[in-house]
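Reviewer 2 asked us to include a model.

Predict the structure of this chain.
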Amino acid sequence: MSNENLPLKGLKVVELATVVAAPTTARMLCAYGADVIKVETLYGDEMRRTGKTELTPYEDDKNPLFTIHNSNKRLVSINFKNADGKKALLQLIGRADVFITNVRQQSLCRNGLDYDTLKAMFPRLIYAHFSGFGPRGPVADNPGFDSTAFWLRSGPMADWQVKGSFPFTPTYAFGDMATSSVLLSGILMALLAREKSGEGTKVETSLFASGIWCNSVGVVSTQFERQHLNPDPFHPCDPFDTFYECADGKWIGIYVNEYARDKEKFARVLGMEDILNDPRYDDIDTLAQSGVIVEAVERCNKIFKTRTSGEWRDILSKNSISCEVMQCTHDVSSDEQAIENGYVEPVEYADHLKVMMPCPPVHFSGYGRRPYAPTGAIGADTDAVLTEMGYTKEEIQKLRENGAIH
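Predicted model (structure tokens):
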């Protein structure tokens, strides 16, 4: 499929956002055809320097982490606190269909970039605002990040480990990436609605909102008998719906299997046929009431230790038992299934550095996607974009000398 046949071709987007969630929303729009102009301050997006703490390259022409969220965007650097810089930014926004920002509301209002101001100027504009905790409430103005608003406040970090364990540390920007899709869907709905009404609108979401939505089942279930989401690993509800360590030290999870329906199959595969005539093993209720669940888990622990994780995956899969080996993140970049489906692809950076990059996860039968392109330096496309807007070389040079652009 030709990469010129892109579903969002012709859509114009201005992004005034940093780090991950909002830039990734713009990145998805860009991947499928939108012309996205990323506006950075003269200092640049802090994501450019994240490689320093994540131990990856972070040079202008060799910055894979920054590339994940910003590939194919046109990079412009404008100081919108400068009068001439703000004028240029407003001109850019006036040419756009969508404006995406995660600048905090107070700053937007101070600089005349809030929704009400821009709506009056550009009534067809889709204004997408992203925040940490939402636009209202006692902590609305607090800085909100993936780790604080998505993970800490919405429950997972307290519940996803056994009680008493040290809290786990999520992968950098995991919640940001999940939330970016929420904002993306809102923007696409707003664009569809604009086709009918002719009017723009404001689209809002937050890390906190997304964290609650992703944890919906937990939020509801803990309002009843269940107060903690992660049970004692030796007391699962179902011994055939949990995880076990195998002979090679790797873990395998056997999940989304129905005990009553699949008990006979598990008994045969695991060599536990005796449970079929043991009333303690009749169903989930008798497992709990008799206390035999501990015995069942201990038996399974020993059985799974007799084969490697790969062997168990083959055996279970051949018997139509849902399972998967617990894979390390390091393994994903070389996963045959991921490569075959185009979920990761090789990208070459400066000095012949090749990196397997995670790809935007939507595939169309009738449309293409832009391939990865390494990102450039701060303001790499400033001159070209301003020239398109009608600025002369002399005017661009004057803006640079006045500190309005980089």
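The chain is about 40% helix and 15% strand. The chain has a mean pLDDT of 95. We have added this to the supplementary material.
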